[in-house]
Write a structure and sequence with these properties.
CATH topology: TIM Barrel
Low-confidence stretches: 1-21
Helix content: 40-55%
Largest sheet: 8 strands, parallel
Number of helices: 11
Number of strands: 11
CATH superfamily: Divalent-metal-dependent TIM barrel enzymes
CATH architecture: Alpha-Beta Barrel
């Protein structure tokens, strides 16, 4: 080794050691999903998001890779290891051309990611579809994508978590899992989303526990309004879920699954379950389901839900990150992960 190369090697090694030494250790094993920042920050750079959540004390991150270039993946993996943090990837399900999906899986493996989170629907079922035929077309397209995805992750032996993303009811999601689930294909358990489809949150958790590959852990607040109810992600301990108990259930049933925070800071979402359009895609839901949901809203509803639209963008951004920090503090103090 030449003197110049030797000097470069030593300098690089020392710099790496110093970076690792300077990195703060995670205060909790709970990771943070980039979707915590949907309202203002909308993070795009995986490395920057990793550093931000390291400063917040998170145990890992879950987000889309901002680059699939080998050199970037190497640097991201190295930095995560220095920080003592894990990585999970977000990505779309494959279409008819599954080339990009295969590239993302290969990159996720290269970066040392533990799972990929996918979803069938980006929006909300009751807002997206105005006819039952459009819903049926979505179901058919989704099933085709799931067939391709399940085959690929089985071959690659890489876990995929399909999120219950305000699209499938409990019964529909369980039916999909019974059809597709395997060692490598399961769910990204979101603890709050199915409330908007009139499912009980604890029923959702119990129904999907056997299939969990990863998670979106959130606490929820609800409140009546004229067309149904309002729904908000709220700080841990301020909502209707017993978050330590939920995490304990996941830990017992699926000990390898990461516990990922998803608290989205925004105005409450309207769930207009008393309007005709809401029911367009629900042909087999009974009045009992609606009655149970409205009863729970009246029993568990809170007087005040958080609003941020009255704040400036800088103020919103500050609240957005502070809510993540407060949930991580709660996790460090009260949740066994």
């Amino acid at each position: 080794m030449s003197q110049m190369n030797r000097r470069k090697f030593v300098t690089t090694a020392v710099a790496g050691a110093l970076a690792a030494q300077a990195a703060p250790g995670p205060k909790t094993k709970m990771g943070v999903a980039a979707t915590c920042y949907l309202t203002v920050a909308r993070p795009r750079d995986s490395m920057a998001f990793l550093e931000q959540q390291a400063a917040n004390g998170a145990g890992g991150i879950q987000m889309a890779l901002s680059s699939l270039e080998p050199e970037f993946l190497k640097r991201l993996r190295t930095r995560a290891e220095q920080l003592g943090m894990y990585l999970e990837v977000m990505g779309p399900l494959p279409g008819a051309d599954d080339t990009q999906f295969r590239k993302i899986i290969a990159a996720a493996k290269e970066v040392g990611a533990q799972c990929i989170r996918c979803g069938c629907l980006n929006g909300r079922r009751y807002e997206t579809f105005d006819t039952f035929d459009k819903w049926k077309a979505f179901v058919d397209t989704s099933r085709s994508s799931l067939v391709r995805a399940a085959s690929i992750v089985e071959k690659e032996k890489f876990p995929l978590g399909l999120e219950n993303h305000k699209d499938w009811t409990n019964d529909e999601m369980v039916a999909l899992m019974k059809e597709f689930s395997s060692e490598y294909f399961g769910v990204c358990l979101d603890t709050g989303n199915n409330i908007s489809l009139l499912d009980d949150a604890n029923d959702t958790i119990d129904a999907l526990l056997p299939y969990v590959q990863t998670t979106h852990i959130k606490d929820m607040g609800i409140k009546e309004y004229e067309d149904g109810f309002l729904l908000s992600e709220v700080l841990f301990g301020a909502g209707m879920l017993d978050i330590p108990k939920v995490v304990a259930k996941v830990r017992q049933a699926r000990p390898k699954a990461n516990i990922i925070l998803e608290v989205i800071t925004r105005d409450p979402l309207k769930v207009p379950c008393l309007t005709p359009k809401y029911w367009t895609t629900f042909r087999n839901r009974s009045g009992e389901v609606l009655a149970r949901s409205l009863r729970a809203t009246r029993q568990l509803g809170t007087r005040d839900l958080p609003y941020i639209s009255q704040l400036s963008k800088p103020e919103q951004a500050e609240v957005e990150n502070r809510n993540v920090q407060l949930c991580l503090d709660y996790a460090a103090a009260k949740i066994a992960i």
